[in-house]
Amino acid sequence: MSLVFRRSYINFRKSVQICGNSNCSNNNGLIIGNRSFSDDKLKNHDFTHTTILIENGYNVQELPIVIRKLNDIGEFENVRKLEPPNTTSDSLNYNLIQAEFKQCAHLRDVFSLITKCSKITPNIALAAIERIYDLEKITTPMVVDIKPDYISDAKGAILEKLLRVVIRTEDTNTILNILKTDSSLLHPYKHKFCDEVLNRVIDNKLTLDQICNFTRYLINNNVDPKYSETIDKMWVGFIEKEDEIDETNIDLLFKILPGLKSSKRTIIVLLEQKLSDYWYKIKVSSMQDILEIFLQVKYFSLQSFAIVGSWFNRNIHVLDEDTLLDIITKLTRLNYTDCQVEKAVERYMKYKESKIKSHILIVAILNYCMQFKIRNKDILNVCGNYLINNINNIPASFLKCCVYPYGYLNFQPDNKEFCTIIEKNLLVKFDKMNVDDLSNIALSFIYIGQYPFQLVNRMFSSEYLTKISNQDIMNRLKLIDTALSLEAQEYPGPLLPKDHWLKPIEQDIRVQNILEKINETFLSIVGESMKISNGVLLPNFCSDQTYFIDIMIHPIDFGNNFSNWKSKCIKNKLTAVLVFLPDHYCSDDKTLIGPQMMRVKHLQLLGMKVVGLKYSQLSQLHTLYDKPGLKKYIKQSIENAITC
């Protein structure tokens, strides 16, 4: 907890005005007006409710708070200390007391047993109340010697006395047990018990576990407006118990976060500090719970996530497959990774390669690699070996998730039989797979220069094609057909009919904006003998981003009509400039992902020089107004263009 945060709260507690009556005003600058709920809702004139401003760094929050009103300064010194965990021997014998009352078959037996007690303790009172409730639920008529009216009157009077005994108990657990019971007899009194527990929280009489239990009760019953407005007043209790929060109970506090509203940020700040202090001691199950809460509250903090990454790398050796699956899935859903997480996964895969049993774990790790574009050789090769050895046992519905990442990450496994074995298995399971998965897998093969001719032939059969009605899938099949026609000489294509018109391709708005800003620089580089055209989609091919050129540098006499560009094209006379966005690269920021690599390859095959410009580099140089640097970067890139 930050020093500023603690100072704000402690100064507030020290400066609360002592009042002689319930109508006195608070002049403390931290209070934003007396929004009292005490008289109307709590009916407790010893406490008033208001708000407080808390500063935490540059952030200021307004939080609800309960204040005790004192008539005499001596009362403050008489506030009781924290109750001991075991207040009386009676609480230890509660089960015996409860068993004794359960032997009572009638209400009069309960009343008789109460009169025999020399002193009615809170647990005796609670056991008696529970038995009265149980007997009330019995529907069979009871034969009694006294009139029902007398029984009802006696029950009401005795119940009132028992409840007064319970509410005065030092044993807060007894009150918490009453709150949790579903007894209809106790429902009218639960708000009073709630007020009593809240007052004890303010007086710092509860343990941290009791505060957590009470808060969970409030959250679970937040449909009641009384409980709902009380939840965000519990933050004071957690701040008071800050020193008791450690690796053994931090997950309990995280589980409370989804139920908080105005005080959520305050508790998060506290827990972030504790997570930083105790991360290396946190158990695996606790960290799983914490990650689950991160997902529920849509939490994002690079500092806390980095701590989780360090914990993950430190504890990777003790994780079993199910636990690793759970954690890596949650990190993927949180959209977070770092070098620590990647290193931990790599270690696990290298040392447990022969022991991995779950294909679900392999799918999760490959999904993690694809989402974060992690082209880790060790991880991908281990996953590839698992697929080759267990391909027959992997359900057809999982094959796309297992295979597509390799093409997307532009990674060819070391095992040269990888694609051959996968294709054979796909042919066996062909009828069990949908065309979307099959087409994605075929395309991923092409990304890494492998050509699944047998698979494509089955997909391109007229009988199979007639079943396809989805236009996106048809466009993907046409891309496969075009790619194989360009790359594979032995492919007898194109086999699919061409579109009579091309659907326009929209240029990424980021690329479009940066090109507009640096247009003059481009013109100064290409000279008067050449012309530049922005956003050119090559005709005679499928309508796909693969054949979209961000800037085409061509001779002036080429004209603006590209419909017959191939007849005018002279090898290496046309230059295709591609602007690669950050998400066009793998995590190393050097290797292009499969779709972009195929884009470069195809433009080369069509006789063009290909220039690749990094969007991040262009944006940085433009933002710094470094025109000489920008011109030098573009000019050198054009001079070093990849020729066909």
What is shown here, in short?
The protein has helices at residues 3-15, 38-42, 73-77, 89-92, 94-102, 107-116, 122-137, 148-167, 172-180, 190-202, 208-220, 225-231, 235-240, 250-254, 264-278, 284-296, 302-315, 321-333, 339-351, 359-371, 377-390, 399-408, 418-428, 435-447, 453-459, 462-465, 471-487, 509-517, 519-526, 565-568, 594-605, 615-623, 627-639, and strands at 47-56, 59-68, 530-537, 548-555, 575-580, 609-614.
What topology emerges from the helices and strands here?
Elements: H1 3-15, H2 38-42, E1 47-56, E2 59-68, H3 73-77, H4 89-92, H5 94-102, H6 107-116, H7 122-137, H8 148-167, H9 172-180, H10 190-202, H11 208-220, H12 225-231, H13 235-240, H14 250-254, H15 264-278, H16 284-296, H17 302-315, H18 321-333, H19 339-351, H20 359-371, H21 377-390, H22 399-408, H23 418-428, H24 435-447, H25 453-459, H26 462-465, H27 471-487, H28 509-517, H29 519-526, E3 530-537, E4 548-555, H30 565-568, E5 575-580, H31 594-605, E6 609-614, H32 615-623, H33 627-639
Parallel strand pairs: 5-6
Antiparallel strand pairs: 1-2, 3-4, 4-5
Helix pairs in contact: 5-7, 7-8, 9-10, 9-11, 16-18, 17-19, 18-20, 19-21, 20-21, 20-22, 22-24, 24-27, 28-32
Fold and architecture overview:
- By secondary structure, the chain is α+β, with helices and mostly antiparallel strands.
- Among the domains are: 75 residues, no CATH class; 147 residues, no CATH class; 131 residues.
- It is 54% helix and 7% strand.
- It contains 33 helices and six strands.
- Strands 3-4-5-6 form a four-stranded mixed beta sheet, sandwiched between helices. It has a two-stranded antiparallel sheet with strand order 1-2.
- Helix 18 runs parallel beside helix 20 and helix 20 packs antiparallel against helix 21.
- The N terminus is likely disordered.
